[in-house]
Amino acid sequence: MQRIKEVSKIMLLIFIFMMFSNVSRVDAGGVISLEQAKLLVREQSKDLRLLELSRSQAELALAITKGKFGIGSYYDSSDMKQDIDNLENLIEERQNAIKILEDSIELWKEQKEDPEAVEIDLEELDRQISEAYQEIAEYRDQLDALRPALVSVVLRYHPAKAQEDAAKPQLEPFEKALDQLSDAQVVQPKLMDYRVEQLYLSLLAMGQQEEALVKAAQLARRGLEIEELKLRLGMSTAMQVNSAKEQLAQREDALHNLITDIEDSSRNFLYMAGLPFDFKFQLAPVNLDTDYKIESDGTIPDFTNSLSYRRAYIKLQDALDDLDDTSEFDRNEYRLAEVNVGEAEIQLQKTLIELEKNFLSRKEKFHSAVSAEKTVALSLEQARSRNKTAALQLKLGMIAPLDLDQAEFGLLQAELAHYSAQMQKHLAFSAYLLALEGIEIQLY
Predict the structure, then answer these.
(1) Which residues pair with 86 in a beta bridge?
(2) DSSP 8-class letter at 274
(3) Coil, strand or helix at 399
(4) 160 closest CA partner among 50, 282, 254, 70
(5) Do the Cβ atoms of 30 and 270 come closer than 8 Å?
(6) Are strands 281-283 and 30-32 parallel, antiparallel or unpaired?
(7) Res. 22 pLDDT band, cuts 50 70 90
(8) How far apart are CA 336 and CA 338, in angstroms?
(9) 67-71 CB contacts, 8 Å cutoff, 24+ apart
């Protein structure tokens, strides 16, 4: 496994080197596919690296604080408690096995002494009784080893637990931070993949939008030229010319704002990928014409294995352990432990409800995105039909070239709307897959 990781890192470095070798070729640039972008971000993201360093800091800070209080960093009371439970289970299993074997021996002895029993193989019964005594002896030897081990751990557990309880106010902030950072290390890469998809597809959509706005500005400029010509011929007014100028200015401003947004999004993309801001790159087209399959019935997934649910479950178990270790004679402490258990139980239920709610919401949003994409697809077909009709009418001399340009511009807008709808459907499906894992999309 380590060898595979090393090879993967080497291949990634080669990929980055090949892209950087194209920096001087502004006309070509480095072509980055969506999957390559995800890989780059996972390996080069400063945010993920900082998350890893923060977790290491929290881990070391917790170990240092434990050391100051004389608490073991690698074998604390929770580990001891688990060992105690395991040892008690092993002892109980062997005691039950001995009881079953002793009952079996008594039964076999009764069968041997029963004068009415017929066709009894006495030698076989003697063999079974002998083997049972041997197994009992082995189990008792094991009990002789397990009981002292249990006593030893129990004697260590109570002082260690008392020591940790005394240090709990100092340890708790580090423990919570470590838990949160550990969870984030699992969730954040997956959320980052979604963010890369969102930004990558948005940049592709912006490219199409830029093409449409360039076309719109060209049409507005031609419209202004026509109005100015008509004004000189006395066929237009100064107000109509000013209106054409205003329309041209609006479309040029929209194009300028879009270019600014593209530059800003490109910088965000380069930052996430760990690349310099002056790196020239191109994005590979993404095929979004895909049928996505999801569960159509009304069943809700089992979220008990999700990260957030397991974290809430662990908190409940910790609260139950604290309650078990609290003496009933200390009424206030015991009542507080009971309240903590009740709070943890409600929080566990709330976590499950939120996971189910997120899943249902993402499922509904995906269905809505599918419906919206179908509607936009019909509009695209109509725009294509109008464009073909306009091209034919121009050949027959029924319309002017500007009318065909307008039809072509309408087609560009319809294609952009369709691509945007496909993009939203794709992102809705990605969010649905994350919801299946109990992960909620963060808003940016």
Answers:
(1) none
(2) T
(3) coil
(4) 70
(5) no
(6) parallel
(7) very low
(8) 5
(9) 69/163, 69/164, 69/166, 69/167, 69/170, 69/171, 70/163, 71/160, 71/163, 71/164, 71/167, 71/171
Locate tokens 């580990």: which residue? 79
Supply the pLDDT for residue 3.
47
- Classify residue 414 by burial, with Cβ atoms within 10 Å: 0-12, 13-18, 19+: buried
pLDDT at position 14:
42
pTM: 0.76
Over the Cα atoms of the chain, what is R_g? 36
Question: Does residue 17 carry a pLDDT above 70?
Answer: no
- Condensed to tens digits (0 to 9), the pLDDT of residues 93-123 reads 999 999 999 999 998 888 877 766 556 677 8
Backbone dihedral region for residue 35 (phi beyond 0: left; psi -120 to 50: alpha; all else: beta) = alpha
Buried b / exposed e along 2-31 (16+ C-beta atoms within 10 A): eeeeeeeeeebeebbeebeebeeeeeeebe
The percentage of residues in the chain with a pLDDT greater than 70, rounded to a whole number, is: 91
pLDDT of 258 higher than 90: yes
DSSP 192-206: HHHHHHHHHHHHHHH
Lowest mean pLDDT among 89-103, 163-177, 377-391: 163-177
CA–CA separation, 148 and 380 (whole Å): 79
From the DSSP assignment, how many helices (H) and strands (E) are in the chain? Answer: 9, 2
